[in-house]
Amino acid sequence: MKSNSKIKPDKCITGIVVAAFITIVPVLTLIRMAMQGIPLSQYKMNIVGKFKLIGFNTEFTELVSGGEYMESGSVLLGKDGWLFYKVDTDGTPLYDYMGLNRFSEDEMRSICDGIGALQAELTEAGISSAILTIPNKEQVYSRYMPDTVEKISEVSRLDQFSQYVREKGKLKGYTDVSDVLKAEADKLPLYYKTDTHWTGVGAYVALKEVMKALDDEEGEDTDISGTVEEDCVVMAGGVRFVRTPGFEGDLARISATLDRYTDVSYQPDAASIPEEDKRDKTLLIIGDSFGDAMQQVARQYYREVVFIQLTDYEESMIYEHSPDDVIIECVERYLPRLASY
User: I need a surface site. Which of 11, 222, 264, 277 has the fewest CB within 10 A?
Assistant: First the structure.
């Protein structure tokens, strides 16, 4: 019995092109790696046309879904062009957002004991210290998260840890900036739309809060209100952050969507920093990329700023730099790293 179905010529051509492409790309990649002496273990990082392929894939899936979804192993498309981190190899930010990640009582006790012991040593050496924990972008700008990602619990692991620290009172100068950032998120650009990190404005808000903790100040809250103008953000007290278009966010870069998703950076205007707020001191920040990003703002207030990645940290490094103040910083998705202390 003959079948009436026929394979359409255009489908045949498409199939041939795809098959040829799948075959040619690995061959070209291996040839290039051999010519440049690149080991096979780095194959994934050197695939010919890798970012063009990623860009095509994300653009195609975004198009067919009506702008509600794009295919990416690392990036989640949110509302109004907001991009979010969805990996499970660099922390698990989506699990943090959903409320799935949890600490045990023993884990929190161990973290506090380790950091508490370090703080006691610093105090003995005449060094002020404070602990700064920072919420993931998903928590601060949750209104831009896609509706397909639902929270299982409204209490995050960071909420859990902050409550434990405050109840036990074990860590000196502990500052969780979750509440203050969430309160200002509607008014100020605190995190980038296309990057995992905070802007200069977000770093400024956190620095002002943790500086108060370093000074062991009590009483009125720090005024971190501000207004967004056409070319800058003006904070309380007249501190200005200059608006500069064209920022290339890490999430747009790794999803190969820089052609469609651009961003704006906000950098501190040194001339607007009040002289009376500046400190003739050395600040040491130990932490992750958020602490690294905070350096530029911190340098407007301190004579010298030193940053050490926690992954490179050794206790002897503290005394090599002779700091006056130490900030131990950690973003939400890296909270388990605090056990390193």
Answer: 11
